[in-house]
Amino acid sequence: MWLKEMRERTFKPHNSMTVAEADVPNERLDEYIGEDGYYSMVFDFSYTDIDVPETGEWFKDSQWTWTDMRTNIFTNQLVTQDKGWGALYLENHDQPRSINKYIPEEWINDYSKKMLATLFMLLRGTPFIYQGQELGMTNIEMASLEDFDDVATHSQYKRALEYGLAPEQALKAVNKRSRNNSRTPMQWNTQKNARFSTSDNVWLKVNPNYPELNAEAQLTNQQSVFNYYHQLIKLRKNSVYKDVLIYGQFLPVKDKNEHILLYERQLEDKIVLVILNVTATEQEYYVDEQYQQVLINNYEDVLLDQSRKLRLRPFESIVLANYGGQL
């Protein structure tokens, strides 16, 4: 097979790190990753395409739930760690912005953006951060189909009309899922075209929220989404928890509350617990006494009482460890 030959004659002699964009079924994953796999890792599409029906007609509203999301993430994590190494992503050039996909519009804020970052960055595997994701860039709303330059978007719009949607419904559908959402100019600062270009005409419109949402503003704001990503990267690379967060096993944590997503990373007797409220309502979780150290939290404080009951505010994420200090 040519993939095996490519690995043996091209990648292997140079000890290359390779990543494939290949939609590989779990039962064939060991052909693609691991000691004898064609690549070092492959991207997982199971949760990034959770909003796409099997027919590929993404103009249709997919009724996915966070229970589905949990199942897809946990299944892939468990299968992948048994066979090799994974490539993690929430956004790329073919996806809309993740915050708009996973969070209701009225709850898109820095808390929910940081919650998604926590979920993503602490899974087992290599995280790939797409341009603007580290700022929490959002979808753009186009006024007409002519504003899109993506052939797939035009095709989906046409199929939506044939399916029976009204023009305004079809436009709303492609605004929601078009990959043009992640291809708008990078938002550097408040200057013209977010300082991406001085031209009067850029290939895609700049998101009009750039005066408030831009790199320059976030660099100096210690509470920004950008700096939160920095904290997560520091945890993975330069902390006493790095070995657990990089090499530790992924372990799902079951809880009767379906509104909380929980998982552990464990290496020998060291455990990191990730707690995520994936809803817009307050939730409760009783924290085991072994967890005494707060690693990171997307709110300014931790609401934990003497009975170890943790109050989780809307889209709150908190990461705890059973070593390194006292809660």
TrEMBL record:
It comes from the Bacteria. Keywords: Glycosidase, Hydrolase. One of its GO terms (molecular function) is alpha-amylase activity. SUPFAM superfamilies: (Trans)glycosidases, Glycosyl hydrolase domain. Signal peptide: none annotated. Gene3D superfamilies: Glycosidases, Golgi alpha-mannosidase II. Residues 263-319 form the Alpha-amylase SusG-like C-terminal domain. Pfam families: Alpha-amylase, SusG_C. InterPro entries: GH, GH13_cat_dom, Glyco_hydro_b, SusG-like_C. GO terms for biological process: oligosaccharide catabolic process. Residues 3-239 form the Glycosyl hydrolase family 13 catalytic domain. Belongs to the glycosyl hydrolase 13 family. This is Alpha-amylase family glycosyl hydrolase. It comes from Enterococcus gallinarum. The lineage of its organism: Bacteria, Bacillati, Bacillota, Bacilli, Lactobacillales.
